[in-house]
Specification:
Length: 650
């Protein structure tokens, strides 16, 4: 069609006057949560037996106005025993975006006469003990507690601690709390069964940086409780003689209540909930903190506060975690992380387990309907080539990259034995919207009634193996074994050198009505064998691992010996409080889990041909325990071995 010339002239004149304008470009897509970090540093291979990423904290240690990242490296473990490495502290200086990738670091020194002194359970925390322009650092380990004063020269800062808690033996915990409200952090250290309360006295000539203000003897647990009475002094939760916890108020000059040194003489309230508790800021508007609880009966629970400050006895939300990634909430409880997904609600939180970190975004409040929105890693299945479970430590830094979403710093290190070399790392994961796929949330067990009918007098235990855990954790991995290694001596592998392993976790469940208690060695010595490598007795042939061909013939067997059966994972809402049985056992509704990183928790398949097999795991086939017959002692399922992979078949 021809365009009239007059119309064309008009169009051109208008274009000249107002300009030709293209359509507005579409808005840039918003970021989404991802397994790909925005920034990352990994373990330095030149530091053997140091497990990098065991702890993390954020503060301005050098006084330049930017927060620095401090990372603790703890002693790695071998054959479930800590090495004697002293551990290390590394500081990554804050930059305009993220942090430097080159650390200022120093190995730790411990002045403890204990023969196993090392950097085991090394943790870090930041505070301000002297009121200057620099943040200060608390380093705690199994064998000591030290304070390093911040300064512009970070290498000089880490050269030696300014203060060490004196004494030997086992140190259980250390924390910074401003007990007297003077704006400086004080120090509480638990050494053995002694709780030592040090007040910050940086100007004192004789006492030095801290002055010992009180000692509680016979107690082992201390944790920060925030400011319960609003007087700007930090309060603490301390263990009591009967094993419960009491909330003690920090004492300021002129406090209206009776004081014994830096804390109240009597607790302001005694906790009725049983299990470790993490307090978090008020969410229901009553002016009192809420609580996450790792209940002694197994679930990880959230409890709202009541008007009197006590917690509701009924949880608003609870989960049993995932036995394929066990110890949900056991390492560091729950951590508030602000608003990572940008929904306008600043009540997002994360909870770690062995091998997984879960992200929750309670848009509609916290109720039993709450499910995780994301996790790192995202998959519910352990992949082939998996090295070992990880333990996580997190800190919320705010929006580091300026995209409008708050980010998350995640440190991770080996939970169990190192497969071949330390693999810890520290990552910054960007905030963003929750991806639309996958649609199913990360897997977690909701509490359920199992109908156990518990009767410790007339009931019977009923042992079985969780097939779902086997199917979701079985994988292929390679590992080198020296000729003198325990695994070679114990015939867990068929030869030294590089071996291909079919590895997995085994969850031994007791779904009966009575505890499954094994006989002691004095009663039945034939059930036990002394293991010279591990230095203790093993229960022989309690569990059997087999790979069978299409004819039902055992192609390869694993050689796993039981060591110490315990209540580790709860499966049922009616499970009793966990119990340590003598000499060992599993309570009804509980399981013990031999995690995939446990030595010899595998079948050596180096010389097994590719093909389809049945993988079979059995427990108590010798009827060591008199048990019921509702649940099978043996479970099995088809798998396909191909190269360096195993695939679970329908």
């Amino acid at each position: 069609m021809r365009v009239p010339s007059r119309s064309l002239v008009v169009v051109c004149l208008l274009s000249a006057l107002v300009g030709c304008k293209d359509d507005d470009p579409p808005p840039a897509p918003k970021p989404t949560l991802s397994e790909t970090p925005l920034w990352q540093v990994k373990a330095d291979p030149s530091f053997p037996n140091e497990c990098f990423g065991g702890a993390v904290a954020l503060a301005d240690f050098n006084g330049d106005g930017r927060k620095d990242l401090v990372v603790g490296s703890q002693a790695c473990q071998l054959l479930l025993t800590s090495t004697l490495n002293p551990g290390r502290v590394s500081i990554f200086v804050g930059q305009e975006k993220f942090f430097s990738t080159q650390a200022v670091s120093a190995p730790m020194t411990w002045q403890n006469t204990h023969p196993r002194t090392s950097g085991q359970v090394l943790r870090v925390a930041a505070g301000d003990v002297n009121g200057d322009a620099y943040a200060d650092l608390l380093v705690h380990g199994r064998y000591g507690s030290s304070v390093f004063l911040g300064q512009a020269d970070l290498a000089a800062m880490l050269a030696a601690p300014t203060f060490r808690v004196p004494g030997n033996g086992i140190f259980l915990s250390s924390l910074f709390v401003d007990l007297n409200g003077d704006g400086r952090d004080d120090l509480i250290a638990t050494r053995g069964t002694e709780q030592l309360f040090y007040l910050s006295t940086p100007g004192a000539r004789e006492e030095g940086l801290f002055t010992l203000a009180r000692t509680r003897t016979g107690y082992f647990s201390a944790s920060a409780a925030g400011d319960l009475n609003g007087d700007d002094a930090g309060d603490v939760a301390l263990s009591l003689e009967d094993g419960r916890r009491g909330y003690f108020l920090g004492c300021k000059p002129g406090s209206a209540f009776a004081c014994d040194g830096p804390i109240s003489t009597e607790p302001s309230r005694i906790e009725t909930l049983l299990g470790p508790i993490d307090l978090l800021p008020d969410l229901n508007g009553d002016g009192h903190p809420e609580a996450f609880l790792l209940a002694d009966s197994g679930p990880f629970q959230f409890h709202f506060s009541q008007p009197d400050g006590a917690f509701s006895s009924t949880p608003a939300w609870s989960t049993l975690g995932d036995p394929s990634f066990p110890f949900f909430g056991a390492f560091s409880g729950a951590s508030l992380v602000g608003d990572m997904d940008g929904d306008g609600q600043r009540n997002d939180f994360v909870v770690g387990s062995a091998g997984r970190l879960y992200f929750f975004s309670p848009k509609d409040g916290i109720s039993q309907a709450l499910q995780p929105a994301w996790s790192w890693p995202r998959g519910d299945v352990v992949p082939n080539g998996y090295r070992t479970y990880r333990r996580y430590s997190v800190v919320a830094p705010g929006d580091l990259d300026g995209d409008g979403f708050e980010d998350l710093v995640v440190a991770s290190t080996e939970f169990g034995d190192v497969l071949d070399k330390p693999m810890g790392d520290v990552s910054v994961f960007g905030g963003g919207q929750v991806p639309t796929t996958p649609t199913a949330p990360p897997y977690l067990l909701a509490p359920r009634i199992c109908g156990l009918g518990i009767d410790e007098v007339n009931g019977k235990p009923d042992l079985t193996v969780d097939q779902d855990v086997l199917e979701r954790t079985v994988h292929v991995v390679w590992k080198d074994f020296p000729a003198d290694s325990c695994e070679v001596k114990e015939e867990c592998v068929l030869a030294p050198g590089r071996r291909k392993l079919l590895r997995f976790s085994t969850s031994i469940q007791n779904l009966g009505s009575k505890s499954a208690v094994l006989p002691p060695i004095e009663e039945n010595p034939d059930l036990y064998v002394y293991d010279a490598c591990h230095g203790h007795d093993h229960l022989t042939n309690f569990a059997a691992y087999e790979l069978r061909d299409s004819g039902g013939n055992a192609v390869m067997r694993g050689r796993k010996q039981g060591y110490f059966l315990v209540d580790l994972q709860s499966y049922c809402a009616e499970s009793p409080v966990w119990t340590v049985h003598e000499p060992m056992g599993i309570s009804p509704g509980w399981s013990d889990i031999y995690t995939l990183d446990t030595p010899c928790q595998w079948v050596d398949i180096t010389d097994v041909a590719d093909g389809t097999y049945t993988f079979q795991v059995s427990v108590d086939t010798r009827d060591i325990v008199e048990e019921g017959t509702v649940h099978p002692n043996t479970v099995g399922f088809p798998v396909r071995l191909e190269g360096d992979t195993v695939t679970v078949l329908p």
